[in-house]
Amino acid sequence: MEIDLSKPILDRNERLAEENRRVFDEKGVFVLDLMASPGAGKTSTILATIDALRDRYGIAVIEGDIASKVDAEKISAHGIPAVQINTGGACHLESDMIQRAISALDLDEIDLLIIENVGNLVCPTEFNLGENAKVMILSVPEGHDKPYKYPNIFEISEAVILNKYDTVSVFDFDEDDFRSVVGKLNPRAPIFPISATKGDGVSAWTEWLAGRIDAARASAEEV
Amino acid sequence: MHEMGICQSILDASFEAAEAEGATRIKEIRISVGELTEVVDFALQFAFESLSPGTLAEGGKLVVNRIPAKSRCPSCGTEFEHDRFETTCPECGNPFNENIAGRELLIDSVDVEKDD
Hints:
Strand content of chain B: 25-35%
CATH topology of chain A: Rossmann fold
Strand order of the largest sheet of chain B: 2-1-6
Helix content of chain B: 25-40%
Strand order of the largest sheet of chain A: 4-3-5-2-6-7-8
Shape of chain A: globular
Strand content of chain A: 15-25%
Number of helices of chain B: 2
Largest sheet of chain A: 7 strands, parallel
Order of helices and strands of chain B: HEHEEEEE
Order of helices and strands of chain A: EHEHEHEHEEHHEHEH
Number of strands of chain A: 8
CATH superfamily of chain A: P-loop containing nucleotide triphosphate hydrolases
CATH topology of chain B: hypothetical protein PF0899 fold
Number of domains of chain A: 1
Number of domains of chain B: 1
Low-confidence stretches of chain A: none
Distance between the termini of chain B: 39 Å
Structural class of chain B: alpha+beta
Low-confidence stretches of chain B: none
CATH class of chain B: Alpha Beta
Oligomer: heterodimer
CATH architecture of chain A: 3-Layer(aba) Sandwich
Distance between the termini of chain A: 47 Å
């Protein structure tokens, strides 16, 4: 006997993502899911983003890692609320983890919630968390050929941050080739070359993000 | 290796459906996976072999239907299949197209047996 199901495999995650989305909309929180390899500079980019936008928006961070609290401690030391999720081995965050994490945050005080996903270029791409935008970081030392090897993350990201751009001449990084292949995979995505720890290029990225936050707010007010 | 979690979700949905029908065995689970996902058949099958023993799906099969990537051109209306890296409209050359297939991760159906 054949039972017809015709439903998403990740149905449960999708449903919980929608619940998260409703909570974020109700509270007027813009949520960014930031994805990258381990060591690409996710936390440094978040810290630079906080510095640029903290006067304009209430910011909080959810840190996803397999183990440890080091990232949440770095963010907290900056005076920004941070919740650490330890996945205990899982290679990506899922919506139920976000649901638990936000219970520890005062969403009324937050305009921008940054979720730092687990360092991984593959697994986080299939899991909605209820975010407004997924954005990825590639760092120059990883090489310009990564979009050929991990295309999906480049396809689904609304913007691509190219971090450690100050090392571009050292690493033989072919920026033209990188831009060309990202342009094929995702012609709409802007590319922001930055050096998160030095601050170069960060304002172009944070102004883009601020534009997205303000646009989300404006469309929420219209409803 | 997110295939392990994906496979567990497939099995959970299948068990729920099978139990609702009072089935005693799952013979086959059919799923559709788009070419634009990064879900690997081999890893899914490995996960199925690891997770199914001792369950209703023990000895059953996981059948994967791969769905090609397809987009629609908003300028000229052409619908076309494409690979990952060449998504430009073949008719009018527009690079900004709307993806309409290839991202599926669907559980289609479950074939079960009942004891009479």
